[in-house]
Structure formats: C-alpha cells, structure tokens
Predict the 3D structure of the following.
Amino acid sequence: MNPIFFITGNTHKFQIAQKALAGAGIELIQKELETPEIQSTSVEEIASFSAKWAGDLLKEPVIVSDAGYYIEALNGFPGPFIKYINEWLSAEDILRLMDGKENRKVIVKDCLAYCEPGNEPVLFCGSANGAISNKKGSRGRTSINEIFIPEGYDKVESDILWDEMKEFWAKNMKTYQLLAEYLRESAQKGSFE
C-alpha cells in the first residue's frame, strides 16, 4: 500500500491520526501544505475541496481533515470557522458570547476526505459531543480547548492530559477507523495500488 500524505500543519491532528490508525498497516506522512479553503459552513465541502486540490497537486493519495465546533446556543457558530475564531477571540471573548445562555451543548463535527490523484474524494464523517464551560480552564493550545468540556468529562480539554485527549478524539471520531476499513476493502478488491 502506498504511503498516504496527511495534509496538515497541525501536529496534534497528526498525532490523533497516528493513534487512530496504529496497527492498520497504513503509512501516514505529515505534509504541510496550504490548501485553498473554500468558504462554507460544511466541513464536508471544505475537506473535499482541499483533498481534491492536494491530491491532484501532489499526484499522491492524501487525506485532509476539517473540523467544526457547532455551539447550539449560537446557532452553530463558529462551525468550521473555528481556526479563525481561535486566532481572533480569546476564551473569555467566547464565554461573553455565551452570557445568559442555558444551552451549553457543542457538537464537534469532523470530516476526513481521502483522495487519490485524478479521482473524487471519499468522505468519512463523525461527531463528538461536549459543552461550553462557565469559566476558562488552564492555558491551552487554542481558545476553544480552554472552554470545551468533552462528553464524559467534568473539566475542559486544556485541563486533561494530552495522551488522554488523543485517545478521546481517536475513539470518538470514527473517521479514521472508517478510512482504514475502506482502504482494506479497496486493497482486497485490487483497486488500491
């Protein structure tokens, strides 16, 4: 099986992918490449477009992951624009947006797009639930992880050990397991070189 290039500059995303695909016989190589990111509220459309672009450019099989944090009380904001929100707003800014909101539920949607050069992307999507805390946790990697409480926990992501969070994301986002299953089936059919 050919190596697959994971298009990301985010080391944490790559570590989650490695954890999730451990033992699947897939050689994953991290490749930093700025892909054009279309403006859409759909993580599926964004991941699909970026994967097609990167696969055709590199002439190699690639995966691209796009995630969004959909806060129910804010009508799904920020969705897939989380990267920009993390750059522009602090955890305190986001908490101010949540002032007076009873519903703290967040759905984290992730879409993994796998694309071989010249082909259309194949999408694997998943989601995890959580909530926005009432106060900021310890200093984290991003604004959202200082206030996001993953389902099953009583503290924010930034207060949870990274190894535990890698396990949480790898287990809850079934996208990588679906990808591994797809690649195994493709290899058995002889469609994957």
User: Anything to note?
Assistant: The radius of gyration is 17 Å. The CA atoms of residues 55 and 85 lie 28 Å apart. The chain has one domain: 4-189.
